[in-house]
Amino acid sequence: MILRPTFQGCLTLALGAAGLVWGFFILPISEASDDFGYFESQLLQSENFDPNILARKLASSAAQVVNDCDTHAQTALLLTEMRLARVALLTGGVEEFDKRAQSLDIRSKRVLGCAPRQSLIWLLRFSLEVMHGRLDQQSLSLLAMSYETSPNEAWISIRRIIVALPLVLIASGPLRDKILSEFQSLIRDGFVDVAARSYRAASEPVRSLLQTQIEQLTRPQQKAFSEVLQKLGS
Predict the structure, then answer these.
(1) How far is CA 18 from CA 162, 171, 231, in A?
(2) DSSP class of residue 134?
(3) What mean pLDDT comes out for the span 196-207?
């Protein structure tokens, strides 16, 4: 498959972002899922977690009996398997990646069957599409669902912008507007560091779009953004 330069650049950035976003996200875990919550918190704070430990966790008896509608535990398991899928992709383990991707697809559909407004799961499903290299309107609709189910919550926005921003140039008009608006909202709501890092990683065409959003902010907000950007070396 031959990709246009802009599309290929978006895909490259999105692949990196899709892996990165799951490396820093700490989930709120219910008491009923303490075991998974503790394990997942440890996993998401370490980029060097032993894949063998992850595989054992997924194969444990506890993981096999978790109810599909226990969204906290299931989300922990999904993120565990996402890490294994990422490892397989980076190491060229095609069969392992396919196995993990299929399991992620099945598990995420079951969770959404119980809780269709789980924005993180829609985002995870979109990230899986990115890892497959599938960036079309059907896959972008998964990202759109993440925005629809949680449009204004910072806990998801600070992770979603990492995945979404590299794709803003190929997003449809309404989805593009949501991505740009989310970037602006992060600055306005005080998450300047997240916005600045996303801006710094963006291509020049994307930065041009973001600059328009920045210019609509108040002077103090623009100053705060500029100062953080300078500290980051841009």
Answers:
(1) 8, 16, 25
(2) -
(3) 93
